[in-house]
């Protein structure tokens, strides 16, 4: 590789490095920020949102019922019916509807009317008998748990107003609206016999689903988390630590012998002030292009939506320095797809990461397919090296909230206690080595290799839907 290019690549890879000292400081900062978030009545950009979810009981696997779940949070809108069999098992029917890109930037009514229509199509197809009933008779309505995976200021189990959009959605007139009311309005308008009984974040769903299925044989499930298009986590907190809960709600729950509530941390917004998170000029570019500049700064270094965009920015920068793709003289000559934000996907990176084909021929094909970008062997070596550095930083950062929450709730307290963490999302499920690299960083953290060995990080498939159904079941509305 030419010496100047090699020097520049080493410099860039170096800027993505995180040593264990910095990781430990970030863990401490996370704990501090979480505590602030639990105390502060109004949420501030500087601290974790730590949103009370009004979920106060964790399933035990005996729950029974037929419920609907609808899941808006990433690239697809999923509608499911979930039959909870009461023995830790469930049957699931589902439809997956890609969300048209223009709807992500349309109006509240356009988006929610589309969501309601997809729920209607699903119910007609799988539960047609409900359509024959009198639509005004609410007792015939199927209960639905709405997984809405964006920051929401939740005011009860079935109401919450949108704080801000993330992950490429940008519909300003939804901010401040109660998303349950809006969805119910559109369902009623379209005469769909469905009642929205609960609102749940996908991480809350993941936590509940894992507790229902009882797959957590190795220990109590402490955290539900998502590493997919976005990232976030939820855990069960002692009521007295949630200082921002209004006194009347706190007293009411206490009088019912309730002593815990699930908290949606919204950890995507960890360290928005960039006190300790690593910052490269590529991170700054990605933030500028996002729908929520200055927010969700942790997510923008960790989750699937952003990893490819970081790499794309590095490549365009290297080209502008005359170090790669020299058949194109100016940036405006580069293939259109390489110049277009968000088109370099983390799925593509997962292939570059482990490509061991001769001359990286698999990478060559993927780059032609995805970006119409012809490459030399040397350029592909560069791309692989950069990919590995970006994913290593992401997975090491991903270990921080897990370690911090485990420490905060003292999850290892007791004799030889083991702890279960339920995870879901495309990155943690499909990105090669992501979970292993995350564990490497946990071993280097304050909990050390002993803690890492006692921690089980397992995929909770369909967790968010099953969890939303469990929330709807527990709702008495
Ligand atoms: C949202 C969270 C969500 C996470 C994973 C983030 O962008 O703010 O509410 O849980 O993505 O889907």
From TrEMBL:
Its EC number is 2.7.1.-. InterPro entries: ATPase_NBD (IPR043129), Hexokinase (IPR001312), Hexokinase_BS (IPR019807), Hexokinase_C (IPR022673), Hexokinase_N (IPR022672). Pfam families: Hexokinase_1 (PF00349), Hexokinase_2 (PF03727). Keywords: ATP-binding, Glycolysis, Kinase, Nucleotide-binding, Transferase. GO terms for biological process: glucose metabolic process; glycolytic process; intracellular glucose homeostasis. It is an enzyme of class 2 (transferase). It comes from Pichia kluyveri (Yeast). PROSITE patterns: HEXOKINASE_1 (PS00378), HEXOKINASE_2 (PS51748). Residues 223-473 form the Hexokinase C-terminal domain. GO terms for cellular component: cytosol; mitochondrion. Belongs to the hexokinase family. This is Phosphotransferase. One of its GO terms (molecular function) is fructokinase activity. Residues 8-212 form the Hexokinase N-terminal domain. The keyword Nucleotide-binding applies. Pathway: Carbohydrate degradation; glycolysis; D-glyceraldehyde 3-phosphate and glycerone phosphate from D-glucose: step 1/4.
